[in-house]
Amino acid sequence: MLTGGEGNRGVPMSEVRKTDARTRRHRKRSSWKLLIALIAGLGLFAAACTGGDDLGSQESITLAANPWNGSALNVAVAAQLLESELGYDVEIVEIDENAQWAAINTGDLSASLEVWPSGHAQNVIDFIDNAGANVDNAGLLGPIGKIGWFIPTYMVERHPELATWEGFADPELAGLFATAETGDLGQFLGGDPSFVQYDEDIINNLGLPLQVVYAGSEAAILAAVDAAYSREEPILVYLWTPHSAFNSYNLTNVLLPDYSDDCYGTADAGGVDCDYPADVLFKIIDASLASNAPAADNFLRAMSYDSADQIAMLAAVEGEGMSVDDAAAQWIADNEATWSAWLQ
Questions:
Q1: Residue 19: its pLDDT value, please?
Q2: Do 254 and 150 contact (CB within 8 A), yes or no?
């Protein structure tokens, strides 16, 4: 999901595709505006409580949206509440998760709301732990993530050996996953090349007859799973939890050698030969936001919900075809008790 390793200190913001939140949401915004208006009619606007006295000198908040739906949903929830409840203008910047660190450090971005720590140890050192850095750890988002290898459970029922990585060491079994692109080797379908993916290293270090092919996006992974599943064909993919795909497909997590700190200590040298760790997702924020926009700073640090909240929104988007903005607005309408605490 994320790309590990070094922070992209030199990435100019001109290379980042910016989208004004109000423009980006224009087509789908009417429904969530109605929902927010209904909530306002019940007297739940936190701005009425705060009086707007601690908005600060910074009127615009810029949030990083990374290229997966969970990130987009977190940003949509935060953006709608920052605008409707606290009166800020919100800009959404679509950016990969490594480049965002330098942008937050320079103040070009205000915050990122879903950091997967397994790919960002060096970024934490460079941009949080470094005495001269300007990025703060803004606390836990709530969900616990886990990247892994997944195959349809019907493949394990046919070939129980495929429940673990040892089964893929058999060229005949690995060959069941071969494609025209991989020849005799089994295909391992990765995601967006910017995601954290140690799969090439894992495959090489375990000596598996597999070849990584990058689908290019989360949507492409899901489309490939759907196509294979409908025909009950073999497919081996990179995926993660929490994810709504597990509501639609019966998938088995292929067991890799157990994760260890020592294993990931060799990541920079290409030495990973073990499973991905569990990722306790956290948020990062421009440290100057506390003085420039204290109400937004307090809100973003307090923002937290559990995996079930995120999965419900993901299911609405990926299973029901709802837009990201409408799914976020529906969650806001249904969960005032949760988000009102972020405004205290």
A1: 40
A2: yes
Give the residue from 273, 239, 237, 280 showing the smallest Cα distance to 256.
273
Averaged pLDDT, 2-9: 34
Tens-place pLDDT, residues 236-250: 999 998 888 998 899
- Alpha helices in the chain, H assignment, sequence order: 21-24, 29-41, 47-50, 69-86, 99-105, 121-124, 153-158, 171-174, 199-206, 218-231, 245-248, 261-264, 289-292, 294-302, 307-318, 324-334, 336-339
Short-list 45, 77, 32, CA closest to 312: 77
Phi/psi of residue 92, each to 5°? -105, 130
**Domain 13-144+281-343: which CATH number of 3.40.50.300, 3.40.250.10, 3.40.190.10, 2.60.40.1120:** 3.40.190.10
Q: How far is CA 103 from CA 17, 32, 134, 192, in A?
A: 13, 29, 10, 21
CA 81 to chain CA mean position, Å: 20
Question: Which two tokens mark 166?
Answer: 């040892």
For 52, the token pair is 């707007």
CA-wise closest residue to 108 among 186, 32, 8 = 8
pTM: 0.72
What local confidence, expressed as pLDDT, does residue 152 receive? 98
Question: What are the pLDDT digits (tens) for 270-307?
Answer: 999 999 999 999 999 999 999 999 999 999 999 999 98
Is the confidence at residue 37, as pLDDT, over 80?
Answer: no
- Residue 315 identity: A
Residue recorded with tokens 């429940």: 163
Q: Which of 46, 37, 101 is nearest to 287 (CA)?
A: 101
* CATH number belonging to the domain at 146-269, selected among 3.40.190.100, 3.40.50.12780, 3.30.70.100, 3.30.365.10: 3.40.190.100
Query: Which of 325, 339, 337, 338 has the alpha carbon at shortest distance from 33?
Result: 325
Share of the chain above pLDDT 70, in %: 85
Of 34-38, 43-47, 110-114, 140-144, the range with the lowest mean pLDDT is 43-47
